Amino acid sequence: MLNYDESLLKEALETCLLVKSVAELHPKRLAEPWAKDRFVCRSYKLVIELNGVPVDFYFGVKKSFPLSLPYIFLAQWDSFGILPHVETDGYICYAQEDGSVLDFDDVAGIAQEALSRAIQVVVDGISGKNHQDFLDEFGAYWDRLKKVKFFTSIVSPGDQVKRIHLYKVKGGAGYLADDEQSYKKYRKIKPHVPWKHYPAIYIPLPIGTVITPPHPDKFWELLDIRKIVFDNLRADQKSELLSLLTKPHHEEVILLSLPRASDGETLFGIKFKGVNHEHPLHEAGRASEIIPLAITRRDKEYLLPRGGSNLALREKRVLLLGCGSVGGFIANELTRAGILRLTVLDKDVLTHENLFRHVLGKKHVGKNKVDGIKDDIEGRLPFVEVLPIPLSLENALESGKIKIGDFDLIISALGNVTVELVFSKYIHGIDSPPVIFTWLEPYGIGGHALLTRNGSKKGCLKCLYQPEDGDLRCRASFAEKGQSFAKNINGCRNVFTPFGSLDAMKTAELATRLAIATLNGDIKTNLIRSWRGDATEFLKNGKKLSSRYSASNDHFIEEANYHFEECPVCHEPETV
């Protein structure tokens, strides 16, 4: 796509510090794996002097160069032993291409900067300066070992040695799990499917442990493995491990955790086959074959943060009232945020009329919305439990199907003001967790999320609905009072309020962010948040805006003093 002067590239390489010679490689060399696998279309052999010794490097570019970074290789990748950031094909990882902005007009500058960085990586590796980088790179080296087998782990890592289990379905891959319950829940194993399990051991190496990856052509011996384990474990960990080295099986598996320098940990495994009368980690133990296991992590501690979820929320219990347009999106985002135990309540079934502004699709038409939400979320997200309650709020409370005190937060997206006002009064008469009421307005002019019972009783839904001229209206509304917004397209049974899916999503986001902040303890008071949308469609339909809408040009409004002093629900008389 972009032509450049090849002579300038070669000249730039020749003038680099430490470079003794540059020669273009014959095109046949580009069929070799190191070049072919990375789509190198042109390459040069460079002789570079390191510590007084000439070392061969390869400099290669793809067709997309200079819109992409060049590749730089050590011709003999292990000539200095195993070095951080040098892969087994010799490729030197000197920069992260994601997010890099290249001055494509300066071909010489790109080449020289890339080569300079690559040389520095090798120099730092030889001197040991970047040896700690093995902590972050260990998994990449381990996965490329010869004869490596791939297993999946849903083990929750921690800092204690513990018994875990290896589970296998006939013809399937191996899974490492803490126990049978977590394995069956994650895999959703059907009752008639046979599977086997074998004991295994989880061994977390302490922070500060640094291990040089094994050479791909020569794996560790038993003595190497024992030394790595016992030379690094704390005394209490050694004691626990020794207690688990009993009654060995013909095959044994250990799962090790190596803390990363940046954050988290790398999991890697080892399988011992042909075990004798002692466990291979025991000094008298033997194994006829030792196999490295590359671990694909599927544990919640790994998956949740990578998806932007908050691990602190995983033990929180949330009750969601209403699974309509707004509630459905809230359920989605709460679970994505890290809420793993969600109870959803709604008595309605999904109809075709709901489809274009609801999170569920046509396969759930005719089913209870709560059952559809459970099916949809649990089918997409591991570890999440959705408890569906296909009842009205009144029936659920009367029958004891829900107990307010069982939850850390309640969100109401019922869309029925009368029922929500009654519920607001109810929760102010009992010991209740924080409650969020959320709703949206017609034609995309806005949406709201009100937080109450958050450390103070002052401020409730009723505060927004005080009699005015004999009429109850919402003080937070962006629409002027006395207007009807219900539309009828096919008789009274098909009356609906006009709003779109984007409006429902935006209101759900508002409520979900407020919920997360509340559960994290970031909000210490009751408040109401509103998003203010475009009023073009609203006005086009002959409707009138309220003074609250017109009083601000802000797209986001937050008020912490919405309490009505004479509110009959949350007003607290002064004590004498």
TrEMBL record:
Report the InterPro entries cross-referenced here: Prok-E2_B_dom, ThiF/MoeB/HesA, ThiF_NAD_FAD-bd, Ubiquitin-activating_enz
Annotated Prokaryotic E2 family B domain ranges read: 23-151
- Signal sequence, renumbered to the chain: none
Question: Residue ranges of the THIF-type NAD/FAD binding fold domain?
Answer: 312-474
Per its UniProt record, what Pfam families does this chain match?
A: Prok-E2_B, ThiF
Q: Which GO terms describe its molecular function?
A: tRNA threonylcarbamoyladenosine dehydratase; ubiquitin-like modifier activating enzyme activity
Any one biological process term the GO annotation gives: cyclic threonylcarbamoyladenosine biosynthetic process
Q: PANTHER family, per this entry? A: TRNA THREONYLCARBAMOYLADENOSINE DEHYDRATASE (PTHR43267)
This one is known as UBA/THIF-type NAD/FAD binding protein
Specify the species: Geotalea uraniireducens (strain Rf4) (Geobacter uraniireducens)
